[in-house]
Amino acid sequence: MAARTRNIRIVVEYDGTDLYGWQLQKDKPTVQGELQRAVQEIEGRKVLVIGAGRTDAGVHAEGQVANFHTHSPMPSRKWPEALNAHLPDEIAVVGAHLSGEPLNHQLIELGARFVRAARTAAGYRLYALPGTTPAKPGMMRVQERGVAIELELWSLDAQGFGRFVSRVPPPLCIGTIELDDGRRASGFLCEPHALMGATDISRFGGWRAFLRSLN
Questions:
Q1: Which of 53, 71, 86 is the last residue of a domain?
Q2: 179 and 154, same structural domain?
Q3: What is the pTM of this model?
Q4: Does residue 168 lie in a domain region?
Q5: 125-156 pLDDT per residue, tens
Q6: Known catalytic residue: 200?
């Protein structure tokens, strides 16, 4: 007996800063592309997601309607939660996980995709942590004398994000970081007690600039 086909309507909201609009594009992240990938992971087959309208690169949307056809018996009310679990999360990295640095492979192995270079808002201090191998920085949000710190944003699916976060060793932790464009992202911060004896390297504006100063 053929599986029953249902037409599922979804209403989506997104920040399009790092997306190339709605329509699917080869080798570029788009809203349609990310939604289709998520649906296909759940459905186990190719699925076309159709939007009621399109947006350009960098444009945000609220209340945009889309639909797709599914053979899945999953109740309609469960689809939003299921899709959110398969859509990508972003992680902000400031040190040994940056591109070309010793721990970047941990992101690559989990299927992470480089999104863009960015900076924090001017409210952070960066420290070189003593006794870490490989060498790592610790970043902390401060009320006074804060500066902007260079970082990278990487995109992971929900499963990869969870696995990555579970491997973060103390005194590092994952918290919410404010970016210089007002957006927020999950990213590396450091427990305050670990900064005793650490070297304040905030004046370099980032980990790579500090490393270059050692040569």
A1: 86
A2: yes
A3: 0.73
A4: yes
A5: 999 999 999 999 999 999 999 999 999 999 98
A6: no
